[in-house]
Specification:
It is a single chain. The chain is an alpha+beta fold. It folds into three domains: 1-202, no CATH class; 219-351; 353-568, Beta-galactosidase, Chain A, domain 5. It contains twelve helices and 21 strands. The strands form four sheets. The chain has a nine-stranded mixed beta sheet, with no helix packed on it. An eight-stranded antiparallel beta sheet has the order 10-11-12-13-21-19-18-15, with no helix packed on it. The protein has a two-stranded antiparallel sheet with strand order 1-2. Helix 3 packs parallel to helix 5. The longest helix is centred in the first third of the chain and has 20 residues, at 161-180. The protein is globular and about 80 Å long. It starts with 35 loop residues before the first helix and ends with a strand.
Length: 569
């Protein structure tokens, strides 16, 4: 842990210097000044504090007076903690317009009193969207609030005694819940452990450490690709990286950082040309969502400075260039640890010209400078193609084959210079039930279909072959077996662009048909070229296929035997 020191300056306008680490001093004990990027985040945080005033519960008769509403106007612990976090960071910063603000301190005090009302007798809180009396959600809060408690305690802010006492009560009650409480997703183990580590730094308690070691006894769930179980590239993978660093530092277990390094090394190949991140393979709610890399900033900055790693530094600078404002959500990390204020090492270029397979995650990544592509197994949207400002978010194909013709492949196989996805379907009919097994009451639940003989069996074999070609990708879709089956192929694009070469379906907003030799989709100077088209019928939404994706979608259609190659560039 860093030695803490405060310099008390005698004017209200200068307030108090923030916590300073031992490494932040030179030989004359001159404090390391906050870097420009951190000053900018403090300003952004000030704006967030202003905006949150609109969500405060101002009715003094309300049960949760002083707490904070969410967007649905439900007062809840998470919104209230968000305010305490943002306001607590602001009130402790001499550069903030709220430094030592007595009105803001009063709001923090009310919010803490409300938070105590929201806390159950066992120390837990509720996530009203889904989890009740939830130890893991309590862990998320403790992890976030513990640094703010330390900042406020050491800020010498006049009148902070009462809110600090309430703060301590909430955190220590929560700690009792975390010592014994359970979890229900893999990342919760490490979130709860990190929260216990932060509590142990504040109030040393061997029970905290014992519980962390119990969770660590399960070993860190990182696979050979460098990914955690939930594969949540825009959300929980980055959470795990951050909390593992907390555990490593707090318990002096540097070996834990190897998992963080491995995950971020993998993430180098998950970055789109515009700084977004591949999310299609996630097992969590970020699956297929637009995500950026800001959640990894703390881990990348920490490791870039620790290891003098130029690639980590490059990721940090990429995040600063593409999603800087979002970093204000992690201000407490940066205020708590001044060693992060040091200048990053020089850049080492990130990979941007590669073909990389991640078999445990079920994806293949191809990047060639300013465009990239993702091939996915176990995913109905099995292909994407991105440029900086325009994206094919997914490609799907389905056939009206016994209501189960939506294609996805369990595997991705490398065949010479191509990647191949396959799927085999069977459609059957059944013969009369064996006489000796017929139930007198005709109850079909007592006559399982597995006992009936199959007949009139139909088959559908789908093979998709994906091959680089010139400055793009060729996708060949072939369906064979039962003849005359309608086929519908979807090219699903991100909103914001304009098409050429396609025909909008009359009366629709986002449905287009493609029977031309070439089409384009353009936005902000970037263009995806695709073609040729194919349109043999207008049965776009086939029975058994997934519904329209709610995005601009181009349809190609045909019948089996079906074979069509479309190029993207």
């Amino acid at each position: 842990m860093y030695r803490r020191k405060f310099v008390s300056l005698g004017t209200a306008t200068l307030c108090v210097m923030p916590i300073l680490g031992l490494t932040a001093f030179n030989k004359t004990d001159t404090p390391l000044p906050k870097p420009a990027w951190l000053l900018d985040l403090i300003k952004i945080n000030d704006d967030q504090v202003k905006q949150m005033a609109a969500f405060k519960v101002n009715d003094t008769k309300h049960r949760y007076y002083g707490g904070y509403f969410d967007w649905a106007e439900i007062p809840n612990p998470h919104s209230t903690v968000s305010f305490i976090n943002d306001a607590g960071c602001a009130i402790c910063c001499p550069e903030s317009i709220y430094c030592r603000s007595q009105p803001l301190l009063a709001d923090i005090s009310l919010a803490l009193q409300c938070l105590l009302k929201m806390q159950h007798a066992d120390g837990t809180i509720d996530l009203l969207a889904t989890n009740f009396q939830s130890p893991p959600d309590t862990g998320f809060m403790v992890k976030r609030l513990a640094p703010v408690y330390t900042l406020l305690r050491q800020s010498n802010t006049p009148g902070a005694e009462k809110p600090l006492a309430d703060f301590k009560t909430f955190l220590q009650r929560a700690g009792e819940a975390l010592i014994t409480g359970g979890i229900h997703t893999p990342n919760h183990r490490w979130v709860v452990s990190a929260a216990l580590v932060k509590l142990n730094e504040l109030w040393s308690d061997q029970r905290y450490v014992n519980r962390v070691n119990e969770w660590l006894g399960e070993h860190i769930d990182i696979d050979a690709d460098g990914q955690y179980t939930e594969k949540s590239t825009s959300g929980y993978s980055a959470v795990v990286d951050r909390v593992l660093i907390t555990i490593s530092k707090g318990l002096n277990k540097p070996e834990i950082l190897d998992a963080v390094r491995k995950n971020i090394k993998m993430m180098r190949y998950y970055i789109h040309p515009n700084g977004e991140v591949v999310t299609e393979a996630s097992n969590r709610q970020d699956k297929g969502q637009i995500g950026t890399m800001e959640n990894y900033y703390y881990a990348c900055r920490y490791l870039s400075l620790l290891d003098r790693d130029g690639e980590m530094a490059s990721i940090c600078r990429l995040i600063e260039a593409t999603s800087f404002k979002k970093l204000a959500d992690f201000l407490n990390y940066f205020l708590e640890d001044p060693s992060l204020w040091k200048a990053l090492p020089g850049n080492k270029p990130l990979p941007d010209n590669y073909v990389k397979s991640f078999p445990y995650s079920g994806i293949v990544r191809i990047r060639r400078g300013q465009w990239d592509s993702t091939i996915l197994s176990n995913n109905a949207g099995w292909f994407t193609f991105h440029k900086s400002h325009v994206a094919l978010q997914g490609m799907r194909v389905a056939a009206s084959f016994f209501g189960k013709g939506q294609f996805q492949s369990e595997t991705i196989e490398k065949v010479e210079n191509s990647w191949v996805l396959t799927n085999k379907l069977e459609g059957v009919y059944y013969q009369p039930y064996p006489k000796e097994g017929i139930q007198p009451d005709g109850d079909l639940s007592k006559m399982p279909r597995s006992n009936r003989k199959k007949s009139n069996i139909q088959h559908l074999q789908t093979t998709i072959t994906i091959t680089e070609s010139g400055n793009g990708i060729n996708v060949e879709v072939e369906m064979n077996g039962t003849e005359g089956v309608p086929v519908s192929m979807e090219l699903i694009f991100r909103r914001g662009g304009k098409f050429t070469g396609v025909q909008q379906l009359e009366g629709s907003e986002d449905i287009y048909m493609f029977n031309d030799t070439a089409g384009t989709y353009s936005s902000k100077g970037d263009t995806i070229h695709f073609g040729p088209g194919k349109l043999e019928h207008k049965g776009l939404q086939l029975r058994g296929a997934l519904p329209h994706a709610g995005a601009p979608t181009v349809y190609l259609t045909g019948f089996t035997p079906f074979k069509h190659t479309i190029q993207f560039s």
